[in-house]
Design brief:
This protein is mainly alpha-helical. It has one domain. The protein is 59% helix and 2% strand. The protein is built from twelve helices and two strands; from the N terminus they run H-H-H-H-H-H-H-E-E-H-H-H-H-H. The longest helix has 23 residues.
């Protein structure tokens, strides 16, 4: 008896297409981050993305072609996510180191795409937070060069600034509106199941009610959407 192995299901979707859609979905957060935090945010995002792409291409010995360097696009997604969860005030080398760790240690060390047991960007952020704490807890005030506290430290009440993103925080975490626009695009393309984000955010909302907190503030402030 001949035993056949998978895959048995065929789909027009490719990894490259999915990653391209994820990059498109991240664009509202990128634009919001650059608008609120300026050119420093753009520098962080460019450095983190390039670092991730070049790290993966080098470690996998990819051919020196456009397709070889860019690969399936997952490295670019990881690098952009690393940048989006960093403060715009961080030193220039932090996004480079962060993306290197995300690709080399958290992704490729476990076997690459689909085999890593941790989210590469969040795994790298955890390492950076432990190793370079002072660089990771300084957040810029939107439209200014001074630093300030995040909403989790400066207030306990809901305000519309939390929705638009005009508050201190990491580059891509402050604008709930921008993140939701990206989410709606992924819903439209069929890449994510609504039950997962609704269950995740809904759980936070209910737990806030149970603990006597402002549920709207809870789901709008901090890293709930950034994660």
């Amino acid at each position: 008896m001949q035993i056949k192995t998978g895959p048995f299901l065929r789909s027009p979707l490719t990894i490259e297409r999915i990653m391209g859609d994820v990059l498109i979905a991240l664009m509202p957060a990128v634009v919001a981050g650059v608008v609120f935090f300026g050119w420093r945010a753009l520098v962080v995002l460019v450095l983190s993305t390039l670092s991730a792409i070049l790290t993966e291409a080098t470690l996998t010995r990819a051919p020196l072609t456009r397709q070889g360097i860019l690969g399936d696009g997952s490295a670019a997604v990881t690098g952009l996510l690393v940048g989006l969860i960093l403060p715009s005030t961080t030193a220039w080398w932090i996004p480079i180191v962060g993306s290197f760790l995300a690709i080399a240690l958290v992704k490729l060390a476990f076997g690459g795409l689909g085999y890593n047991i941790f989210n590469p960007a969040l795994g790298a952020r955890a390492i950076l937070l432990l190793a370079f704490t002072s660089q990771m807890v300084k957040f810029a005030v939107p439209f200014d060069v001074i630093t300030g506290a995040t909403p989790l430290l400066s207030t306990r009440n809901f305000s519309w600034s939390l929705v638009w993103g005009n508050v201190g925080g990491s580059i891509g975490e402050t604008s709930v509106l921008a993140i939701l626009l990206g989410a709606f695009y992924l819903f439209y393309k069929g890449h994510i199941n609504w039950r997962i984000p609704v269950g995740y955010i809904g759980s936070a909302f209910v737990l806030a009610l149970i603990w006597g907190l402002d549920p709207w503030y809870t789901i709008m402030a901090g890293l709930l959407y950034g994660d």
